[in-house]
Amino acid sequence: MKKNQLYINGQWINSESEEFIPVLNPATEEVIAEVVKATESEVDQAVAAAKEAFPAWNQLAVSERKSFLEKIYEILDRRQAEVAATVVLELGSPIGFTRGGQVKLSLVEMKATLEEIDNFKFEEEYHGSTIIKEGFGPIACITPWNWPLNQIQRKLTPALLAGNTLVVKPASNTPLTALLFAEIIHEAGLPKGVFNLVTGSGSETGGYLAAHPDIPLISFTGSTEVGRGLYEAASKSIKKLIMELGGKSPLIYLPGGDLDLAVDKAMQAIINNQGQSCSALTRFFVPKDQLEVTKEKILAYLKDITLGDPTKEETKIGALISKEQMDKVLAYIEKGKAEGAKLLTGGNRVGDKGFFVEPTVFYDVKNDMTIAQEEIFGPVSCLIAYDSLEEAIEMANDTTYGLSGAVVGPQEEALAVARQLRTGNVFVNEGIKSAKVPFGGYKESGLGREVGLYGVEDYLEVKAIIK
Ligand code: NAP
Ligand code: MG
């Protein structure tokens, strides 16, 4: 199946490009489709359409913009089974997880923002002036493959509500979900040019879009490495950047807490989405005298976890996204062994078709080892023993990242530790994140926040009309 269409100015257009990118099913290694690499002139057309559509969209009442997003919500809700099947096909995540953790999550987050927007002040009188918050213009949204629907939704919903128009460039590993989402958005009947989608390679199509002189804001989710390059490129025309980047998030277990809960969180971090999550809690800190019992609980936890065909309901661990990603994960595992960490379980590829890797846990990990410092983005957890709480907090913060974190322990102590972690989210014990609560990173994990009203805030320019 060749997909040579791009969504520009409210219609599907046939690309003139003759270059294509193959899309694989990572569980079978079959090529399931090919998507086109948009040409520079097609990116120009998409940006021009978004630019043309901006003034009218930005002038619409917020309630009118909201009603278009409500239509998208309704159609996505109706077509969720189809979207989930597409995500499973190109991402390799298990269907059970995908339905809830990928597709339903998008609906819940979208609804949460649509509810909250009524409480947001786009205009107010302030010290004799009128303060207006409005869109930036035509913006670029560049998204990764690990949540192929929701990484787009997290930008689309707040950015459109704020009055911006969009050109989206999805990840080349998972463009089919993005194309399906564009179909859904088309069905919702937005004014032409408000939403545009171009497929193509990151460095070429993505780089060209991000550097476009008519783009005042780039909203990027992906690796810190690519984010750093965009930061440099954006400086030429002082573009605003919203960046959700990598992570290496700590989970600290405190004596007297619920160790089963801590083990559950640490293992879910490497099971869900095969550990390919930016906020995965992959450094698990336990007091030295709890190390043995923690190891036993981990082994018991992983004993009956089903790995394999992601289309089966019972599967908990599917395939990694690509051979490249699998090789990277296996190389980190070798690096961990070479640096002296010990394997508690896992460490190998499973089978020889499809990119499956066992859930892998290292112990005797030192926080300065490569496997404890670099983002592996796969099913690998590092168990790190600590002597004192001060040492645990210091190690937890001793990373260039600062995305997420968790503390399991007696509630008051755990809350006090949470305040000392330098991360954008900290989960304490059974705490569950509302879909209205912000997400985003400190340090090299990013700039800005997504989700709910905090997410909308970043997509707004502020104008003071002084009377
Ligand atoms: P990536 O390689 O950085 O790619 C992300 C997106 O950027 C893709 O659409 C990619 O296109 C594009 N891209 C690549 N090079 C580019 C360039 N030079 N200029 C413009 N665009 C470019 O990341 P990934 O491998 O897809 O995703 C994994 C990473 O994303 C991890 O580091 C993870 O932590 C991070 N992530 C962060 C969050 C968060 O919210 N903080 C969420 C999810 C993922 P191609 O696909 O065509 O290469
Ligand atoms: Mg990449």
The N- to C-terminal Cα distance equals 59 Å
| Biggest sheet strand line-up | 15-18-19-14-13-20-21
Helix and strand composition category? alpha/beta
Largest sheet: 7 strands, mixed
In the predicted model, the low-confidence regions spanning at least 5 consecutive residues are none
Question: What's the alpha carbon Rg, rounded to whole Å?
Answer: 22 Å
Associated small molecules? NADP nicotinamide-adenine-dinucleotide phosphate, magnesium ion
In round numbers, the mean pLDDT is 97
Strand content: 15-25%
> Helical content, roughly?
40-55%
Shape: globular
Number of strands: 23
- How many DSSP H or I helices? 15
Summary tags:
binds magnesium ion, 40% helix, 15 helices, 467 residues, binds NADP nicotinamide-adenine-dinucleotide phosphate, six-stranded mixed beta sheet, 23 strands, alpha/beta, seven-stranded mixed beta sheet
What does this protein look like?
With 467 residues, the chain is of the alpha/beta class. The chain is built from 15 helices and 23 strands. Strands 15-18-19-14-13-20-21 form a seven-stranded mixed sheet, with helices on both faces. It has a six-stranded mixed sheet with strand order 10-9-8-11-12-22, with helices on both faces. Helix 2 runs antiparallel to helix 4 (95-116), helix 3 (80-91) packs across helix 4 (95-116) and helix 4 (95-116) packs parallel to helix 5. It is globular and about 65 Å long. It starts with a strand and ends with a strand. The model has no long low-confidence stretch (mean pLDDT 97). Bound molecules: NADP nicotinamide-adenine-dinucleotide phosphate (NAP) and magnesium ion (MG). NADP nicotinamide-adenine-dinucleotide phosphate is lined by residues 142-146, 169-173, 201-203, 206-207, 210, 221-223, 226, 229, 244-247, 278, 375, 377, 403, 441, 446.
